[in-house]
Amino acid sequence: MKYLLLKHYRGGPTPVTDMPMIDKWTPEEISAHVNYMQEFAARLQESGEYVDGQALAPEGTFVRYDGEGRPPVTDGPFAETKDLIAGWMVIDVDSYERALELAAELSAAPGQGGKPIHEWLELRPFLTAPPTITE
């Protein structure tokens, strides 16, 4: 079972610590956080549960098709993903319970003062089969 873990800058319940790290954390706190993430991913690679993951830059653009022969529409009246999504990780685990366990562990990455950030992560399962369409 594959799951997507989404790390959010904002959205969801209020985090225990202040975010985002770039504006408020010391270089040492950022390094400790990044090292935790890398060690977490390395451990999951060893167990065969890691598929992929990336941190995302804050820059980004919404793009929408606006019809044949027309330029794409960029940016929009919607909340921008670049303000919401900080990064992601894909895991491949044996059960939903294991996915919850790993998400909770990832939520404990260190933040300011080395304390766990208790970050809210969005856990989304991948579709295993296309939906059935009935008429």
From TrEMBL:
Coiled coil: none annotated. Residues 1-108 form the YCII-related domain. InterPro entries: Dimeric_a/b-barrel, YCII. It holds the Pfam family YCII. It comes from the Bacteria. Belongs to the YciI family. This is YCII-related domain-containing protein. It comes from Micromonospora chalcea.
